[in-house]
């Protein structure tokens, strides 16, 4: 039986994508503007990356820093961006919004799901800022296409969230906990053994794939090091 874990790498452009695939990434998260923690890339960027690699691509749907969808006009702009990406051929996405009380913004999420109907998607680290993680998961449990939560277990990162991640990994048979846990956010190589021992098998890296920081490109060698670690 294969022990291969899923390794997802953030890519900003086609060069990043090629390096990540060369290093052994299984999937890419496509974003722009990491100064704002990752926003929706232009459809032209998606097209260039899609032409450069043949692994799955999940495209971020978020137009401003933070986890609020913003004004009605902001939501309309996001819906239009999602529609443009679908026209370009995008078929996997990353999204997630909270209201002012820290609960899931179901109105916005469902607006977007109407546009990306039939696509698989990740609810991103908004879960780590939710008032009640358990309630959020149960509210989202039946939304079509949701197969993954990107989470560190805590807004402060994996160091603080490790016990939560391990506990949630043990609840996969419960309603609301069937989706994959994709661990990311302050993730380090030394976290991997405990996470793998708990049964977690999906990992997300951004800065860890870039030895020279966000101003530098993805390193195939850095990705290869992670590939080896998560499969051990």
UniProtKB/TrEMBL annotation:
GO MF: copper ion binding
Pfam family, one: CutC
Record-linked InterPro entries: CutC-like, CutC-like_dom_sf
Signal peptide interval: none
Gene3D superfamilies: Copper homeostasis (CutC) domain
Assigned protein family: Belongs to the CutC family.
Protein's UniProt name: Copper homeostasis protein cutC homolog
Organism listed in the record: Streptomyces qinzhouensis
């Amino acid at each position: 039986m294969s022990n291969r874990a899923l390794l997802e790498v953030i890519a900003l452009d086609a060069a990043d994508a090629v390096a990540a695939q060369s290093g052994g990434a299984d999937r890419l998260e496509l974003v722009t503007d990491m100064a704002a923690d990752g926003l929706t890339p232009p459809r032209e960027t998606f097209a260039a990356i899609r032409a450069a690699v043949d692994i799955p691509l999940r495209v971020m749907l978020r137009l401003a820093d933070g986890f609020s969808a913003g004004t009605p006009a902001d939501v309309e702009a996001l819906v239009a961006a999602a529609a443009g990406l679908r026209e370009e051929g995008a078929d996997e996405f990353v999204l997630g919004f909270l209201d002012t009380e820290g609960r899931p913004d179901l109105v916005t999420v469902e607006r977007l799901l109407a546009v990306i109907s039939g696509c698989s998607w990740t609810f991103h680290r908004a879960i780590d800022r939710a008032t009640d993680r358990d309630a959020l998961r149960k509210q989202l449990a039946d939304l079509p296409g949701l197969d993954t939560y990107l989470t560190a277990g805590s807004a402060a990162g994996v160091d603080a969230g490790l016990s939560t991640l391990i506990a949630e990994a043990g609840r996969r048979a419960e309603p609301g906990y069937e989706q994959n846990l994709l661990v990311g956010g302050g993730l380090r190589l030394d976290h991997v053994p405990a996470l793998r021992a708990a049964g977690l098998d999906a990992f997300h890296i951004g800065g860890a794939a870039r030895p020279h920081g966000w101003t530098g490109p993805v390193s195939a060698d850095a990705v290869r090091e992670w590939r080896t670690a998560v499969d051990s």
